[in-house]
Design goal:
Elements lengths: L1 H4 L1 H6 L3 E6 L4 E4 L1 H7 L3 H4 L4 H4 L6 H10 L3 E9 L5 E13 L2 E11 H48 L3 H25 L8 E3 L1 H15 L4 E6 L7 E3 L1 H19 L3 E15 L2 E13 L27 H11 L3 E7 L2 E9 L5
Parallel strand pairs: 7-9
Antiparallel strand pairs: 1-2, 1-5, 3-4, 4-5, 6-8, 9-10, 10-12, 11-12
Amino acid sequence: MLYENSSTLLENLSTAILLFDADKRLISINPAGEDLLSTSRRAICGQSIDELFIDFPLSEALTEAIKAGQPFTERDVELHMSSEHRIVVDCAITPFSENSQSNGVIFECINVDRNRRITREEGIMARHQATSALIRGMAHEIKNPLGGLRGAAQLLERELPTDELKEYTGIIISEADRLRKLIDRILGPSDAPILRPTNIHEILEHIRTLVDAEASNKINFHRDYDPSLPEIRCDRDQLIQALLNIVRNAIQSVGNQGNITLKTRAERQFTISNQRHKLVVRIDVIDDGPGILKELRETIFYPMVTGRAEGTGLGLSIAQTLIHRHHGFLDFDSSPNRTIFTTWLPLEADS
């Protein structure tokens, strides 16, 4: 058979290839296809295409392609493996046959979401680097006169004759200190990460314990961990700070009542900052809050940007900085009742 003779070639292709027989049942899938669908061939081989995908949009066209033996292509096809797993692909469907009999179709998929994610990531990181450079420059320009202002207030305080007048210089000094602390918070931690092998689930459980005491009793925490994940090389304290900021952001989003899920998965052949990694860990923080306002979505990782009156707008900016120092990336997807902040971190030993 064609799919038997070509198995070695299919195994080494980076494009997702699914082979369906004349009855539209999956007979083979290559590793790139398993990565795309986040499943294994053992789990899905033998399933019909309508069992594999929910409301498959090309079912009738696929039937016609098998009957007529005519290939076709479609762009931006939305595939649903489940209610939560959705991907958008460009696909090419090519019928194949042997001995003048129809054997099925080759279903070739290119992940459009992946290409869009990489483009979005490049834009986010470019803006983040530009903003960081601007903030560092502004911090330098502010700290110098601020130090002079504080020093002058201290000298003036020594010359003042009454405690009542010294109250005013005390206000100047305390406000100068507050501004310096605010600038330091905007700049974020300055220490380079010290990488050591760490269990990511131990970090997440530590964070869950911390926030569980802070959160309302009506907020439910759910865990969906992949126990097969290997240890990751990271700075434990910095990664705790980054993920803690994300989880606290989710708590503030759901308010006094809601659900937060901590989820981990491994993803293969994943690109971060134009570097392809054989294996990365994906950490999802999922909440069922109202979602992120549309006007904030392009600037949510900027410092001082927040949708809450009591918020500082620093948590996600600091989280992005710390994750980037680990050669990772932080992004989000938001809709009403479902917001996901996703962190990707390389799992290679030399990361």
